[in-house]
Amino acid sequence: MSQVQTEAKPAVTRSQALGWLRKMMLIRRFEERAEMMYQKQKIGGFFHQYSGQEPVAVGSIGVLREDDFVITAYRDHGHALARGIEARAAMAELLGKVTGCSKGKGGSMHFFDAEKGFLGGHAIVGSHIPLAAGVAFAIKYRGEDRVCLCYFGEGALNQGSVHEAFNMVSLWKLPVIYILENNQYAMGTSLDRSSAIRDLIVRGATAYGIPGVSINGNDIELMAETTREAVHRARHGEGPSFIEAQTYRFKGHSISDPAKYRVQEELDEAHRNDPIVIYQDVLKERDWLDDATIERVAEEVKREIDECIEFAEQSPEPPLEALYEDVTLAPHLPQE
Amino acid sequence: MAVITFREALNQAMSEEMERDDRVFLMGEEVAEYEGAYKVSQGMLKRFGDRRVIDTPISEEGFAGIGIGAAMVGLRPIIEFMTFSFSLVAIDQVVNNAANIRYMSGGQFTIPIVFRGSSGMAGCLAATHSHRLEAWYAQVPGLTVVLPATPADAKGLLKSAIRSDDPVVFIEHENLYGEKGKVPDGEHLVPLGLAEVKRPGSDVSLITYSRSLKATLAAAEELAGEGIEAEVIDLRTIRPLDFEALLASVVKTHRAVIVEEDWPYCGVGAGIADRIYQVAFDELDAPIRRVAAKDAPIPYNRYLEASMLPSVDRIVAQVNDVLYKK
Predict the structure, then answer these.
(1) The domain containing residue B85 runs over which residues?
(2) Are residues B85 and B171 in the same domain?
(3) Would you state the pLDDT for residue A253?
(4) What is the C-alpha separation between A76 and A122, in angstroms, rounded?
């Protein structure tokens, strides 16, 4: 992973930068505490941590308008929080509670928030890539200047429908930005063992005539700037973009994965390059931040997550009748 | 009442709905410039332009997903599968996304989409192009599954499907496209989820849908010659099932034969028979019988293929069985 490229000239205002830092710290804390809740068996199913990748979601979503759309895969907690889904609704969803952002029907992999333009949380690898194309199709169909950001892992590049969608978004010049979060591992299979071509820009962008760049996604301001350019093109009818954001997940693929396929030295190196610490240092260099402020924000975030856990634990389970609710908009007639 | 073909009825339904609602568009392989592999969308490109009648590459999974994504944010797509046999490569999108997103999002997103196209044993197309997948889709909560048998129903049901706020799998039988029938003039809507008695009778209930309606009505005619009055019920929608209509008929006739073109094991008729048994076992004077396709892949050879279809002879034999006439 390359070193931070954020230049001395900031790409953001101070308050924006501090907001992004706070958001990254919130995501980190959320994931750490959620993992503890999982260990206590208060959360079931599959659970995929975002720790280590925070700048990718926060930097890119940070340049969107409120009326834009975001869609992602199953490692969705970070994107949801970055988009402004309340931590309490996210935590309640993990606990399966009726106050969750999907009323306890979706769980960790299926966060949704219509008001925030957050279109999921999708757990079949690659299946949301065509959905993002459809959202962009609708934007263009209605003559709007909105955009759709779509996140996925490098593993998704091996799915067929992903390539079908890439071809059509380029053919029809649809306003979508595909952000490949290359965290180096598709579950336990490294890129070397799964991709005939190492250059993912060639596979995902060049092959379809889509402009593509590979950047250090853990450099939050570079992530933001790169996304801003792509969004600008999309809003002006210039079609899709492809950004490969190099990043690193601190944890295993999911909570049940001890990640024995990677060596300790690699993990130690990643933790030394913790993107949150690096951004704190960048902001300190600019005199925008001091240690006291970091401590204060950490304390605020801690309290917010404590509060959201309490909220989630005290929220009611969905009533049993909820089983048949929200199947269809028309009355659902169980075929029993 | 005009007499038009099944194909024209579908075309009218789509055109009328696109005329009244700009959110509706048609997307699929060869739907625009070629005017449809089966000419269902004839003239629509000229009438609505390439913004709303859209040719796609051969990428069923991709464009099915594009339709669903567009529906999530408020459009009302009609996605044409050249045949439902090809929907097998898009089934992840139909089942995992179209049927589930409303539920998984706690009701925040609706998916008003129609997946439509041809289906069935249409003559010497062999195993890969002759699928009848209605039982597969009918098992999935969240989907509505419609199979019209007449031009009037094709038009009225497709218009209702396009107006539905939920995903509809709308399966047309390839051999019906040229069938002619009377279609009411003006705005003609047939509600989803309602069966229709196509021929009243009192001795036995013949329950069917789609192309099998023809053989079933012909069998009823033949039975009438023997003094047996069969009631023919066209399900039209197989999910949700119009169980009230079935029950009313079975309570009257005390005998039922289900006629379907899909495979027998776990087929539509198996699910229907189970529901009738659960509620009306005591009403039955004979076990429910089924006439389905034979349990084999669909052969190319025309005689072998014909032997698989629900025929008048096979239906009459099963009616005689439930009437204990040997």
Answers:
(1) 2-183
(2) yes
(3) 79
(4) 8
